[in-house]
Amino acid sequence: MTAPTESSATVGPAQAMLLNVAICTLDRPRTLARTLASLAEEQHADEVSVLVVDNSPTRSARSEWAAFRAILVGSTNYLPVAELGLSHACNAALGHVESRFLAFIDSWDGIDRRVLELYEQVIAPVGVAS
Q: 15-123 in CATH: which number?
């Protein structure tokens, strides 16, 4: 398991990681907290690397990320992105992928209780080997 860290550089590949989840957010700390809490409750959370991409000039997501990184089972990273816009946040996340698969989740959506299980069902036939 990768230790939780704040990241602003590309993270190397993690062999055991099945899925990266990038949560791009802009000034939504309360809804980000709900999303992170729902992700922490997922059954397969240990197979997921979480990347919080903070697109706010005030870095409003940093405190929520810091509060949840201790309870998230898989690796978790924080990425501040200075240039505003969802496309900039998503493109920045692409440079920090630790596995073959990446899911983008909106910070205001939360996560359905079985979403990681569903992703795993889709990914399993493809396999995790390169």
A: 3.90.550.10
| CA proximity to 49, closest of 78, 28, 25 | 78
What are the residue boundaries of the structural domains of the chain, listed by start? 15-123
C-alpha torsion angle, residues 8, 5, 108, 103 (rounded to 10):
80
For 19, the token pair is 């899925």
Distance CA 34, CA 107 (A): 8
Distance CA 24, CA 32 (A): 9
Model confidence pTM above 0.85: no
Return the closest-CA partner of residue 127 out of 31, 35, 15, 1. Answer: 15
Residues 6+ apart with CB under 8 A from 107: 23, 24, 25, 26, 28, 31, 32, 35, 61
How many CA atoms, within 13 angstroms, populate the side-chain half-sphere of residue 91?
7
- 27-70 tens-digit pLDDT: 988 889 988 888 887 766 677 888 999 999 999 899 989 988 87
102-106 β-sheet, strand order:
5-6, 76-80, 48-54, 19-25, 102-106
